[in-house]
């Protein structure tokens, strides 16, 4: 089989160890009406490090059969909305803790004066 790689969205993760379900969509033109139709297919993908999360945008590549259904492996993560959200929360929490610590410091300085 020639090497194939697809971009898709992780739709299901965490139900099987080292496995995620990735949905790959493509657009085709209907022969009779000429309208564009979205076709999609789900692939089981081997994720060795269990790093994928729901709604990640990933690139997958075909490989030797890993199990009865798994024929693809994770090549790279293009975008991870959940990881970006967690990073933003951590940044906001750090700013909040800095602000509260500065307020507490100022209050203790006022008490000492």
Automatic annotation (TrEMBL):
Q: Which UniProt keywords apply?
A: Ribonucleoprotein, Ribosomal protein
- Its Gene Ontology biological processes? translation
Give the family from UniProt. Belongs to the universal ribosomal protein uS17 family.
Name of the protein this chain belongs to: 30S ribosomal protein S17
> What Gene Ontology molecular function terms does this protein carry?
structural constituent of ribosome
Q: Which InterPro entries match?
A: NA-bd_OB-fold, Ribosomal_uS17
Q: Does the keyword Iron belong to this entry?
A: no
Q: Is Aminoacyl-tRNA synthetase one of the keywords UniProt gives this record?
A: no
Region feature Disordered, mapped onto this chain: 88-113
- Cross-referenced PANTHER family: 40S RIBOSOMAL PROTEIN S11 FAMILY MEMBER, SMALL RIBOSOMAL SUBUNIT PROTEIN US17M
Gene Ontology terms: cellular component: mitochondrion; ribonucleoprotein complex; ribosome
């Amino acid at each position: 089989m020639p090497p194939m790689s697809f971009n898709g969205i992780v739709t299901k993760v965490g139900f099987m160890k080292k496995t995620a379900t990735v949905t790959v969509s493509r657009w085709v033109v209907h022969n009779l009406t000429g309208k564009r139709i979205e076709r999609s297919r789900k692939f089981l993908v081997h994720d060795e490090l269990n790093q994928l999360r729901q709604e990640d945008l990933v690139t997958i590549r075909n490989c030797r059969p890993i199990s009865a259904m798994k024929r693809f492996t994770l090549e790279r993560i293009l975008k991870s909305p959940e990881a970006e959200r967690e990073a933003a929360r951590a940044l906001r929490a750090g700013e909040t803790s800095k602000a509260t610590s500065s307020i507490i410091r100022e209050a203790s300085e006022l008490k000492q004066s």
